[in-house]
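ligand=magnesium ion
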Amino acid sequence: MQLAFDNSYARLPERFYARLAPTPVAAPRILKINHALAEALGIDGAALETAEGAEILAGVRVPEGAEPLAMAYAGHQFGGFSPQLGDGRAILLGEVIGRDGIRYDIQLKGSGPTPFSRMGDGRAAIGPVLREYIVSEAMAAMGIPTTRALAAVATGEAVRRETLLPGAVLTRVAQSHIRVGTFQFFAARRDGEALHLLTDHVISRHYPQAAGAERPALALLEAVSARQASLIAQWMSVGFIHGVMNTDNMSIAGETIDYGPCAFMDRYHPGTVFSSIDHGGRYAYGNQPRVAQWNLVRLAECLLPLIDADPDRAVALAQEVIDHFSALYRDAWLEIMRAKLGLAEAQDGDEALAVRFLKLMEDEGADFTASFRALATLEDDDAFLQRFSDSTRAQAQEFLAAWRARLAGEGRPEAERQAAMRRVNPVYIPRNHLVEEALEAATAGDLGPFETLLGVLAAPFDERSGLQRFAEGPKPGEEVLQTFCGT
Ligand code: AMP
Ligand code: MG
């Protein structure tokens, strides 16, 4: 088994991480290998399926060229600062260069305790591992930047949560695992040298164009801010709620990372929260853009000394970038909303039209994904209006009239518009009740529903016969109102 490791993070000073190997487990058994991803990374997927592959993916055997380590980071969790978090149950094996020329981290998650584990056992149960597998791969299939799942293996060991559960390890692939919290780790220690090194590393790895800027650290802040604006707009466009947008869960590379109690909203409401630990609704659906901006302020604070030697000047420059986030986000969101509504041109009033559709869904308690998809496939108005109750039907009718008037002004052929709408309005998303069903079965030893769901979500925009159940919101009694991080 050959992995062409080319490790750059391990070249950074020793205080960036703790070097250690994963902790071996009793009986590794492959649950799932992502062959398409392996191929894209230039990794032999068939070799991963072997006993040797299972041992590597379970952390029993360290592959040649790996330089295993647990990364150090800090972070604001629900607004409170923890100066020391770090990989408490993950090991970075190393980096490989994908066929696309991009450098990727290969990380094992659930691979045993590290110096950063605090009270945790360093392990993961099969449910949360497969949950991250399903949701991250669904996000990737929808074209949303995300870490990926290369493999899931059972450990043959039990982990203790509320009950004893079968343990598993996820192999996660990311452009990097550097977080806002990684910068905070060094800023909290007033380690200017480390901040410099980290900034240079991140610029050369993720934002090379910033290297030539007059102020590279400021250009980095701008670039991270732009990627976050685009990412959050994409989350919002599919009803995704991350659930734990702590600064340690915000990737510097702009990928969705750390799938814990995340969820997709069924019925539209901006205040929607699923996470069992989010009592105040800090990370509610509608708060996500504001939280991203708050997190970027935390990043900006770390970068200030690198932006300008004069603190006042540094603050003024950073503040401009932070303020600009709102416009970047709004533009990114509006562009996606136009596409979702089938609008090819930008016109005044588009935002109001989008807001009107959201308000209609909110007043009705309509399913977010199914409503957009219904608009994308609308043939006759009556069928569409059937989705609304007496109290909102007139409102729905008025919306349709306004939408049609707006479309008429563009003169795009209907078939072309509908095809375009179907490419941006998913029919299948990882709905909570479907995910729960798959995880429950897998925990009991049946991977069938997990495989089926993965297959459905692999082509989220292509409606296929026989899959109606996966396109619908939960029936009464099926609704999952709370999600858990399972750690
Ligand atoms: P998360 O909620 O997954 O973003 O994790 C927050 C912090 O808790 C990170 O430092 C994790 O490494 C750590 N952590 C979460 N679960 C465990 C676990 N089972 N054992 C050790 N550390 C953990
Ligand atoms: Mg985390």
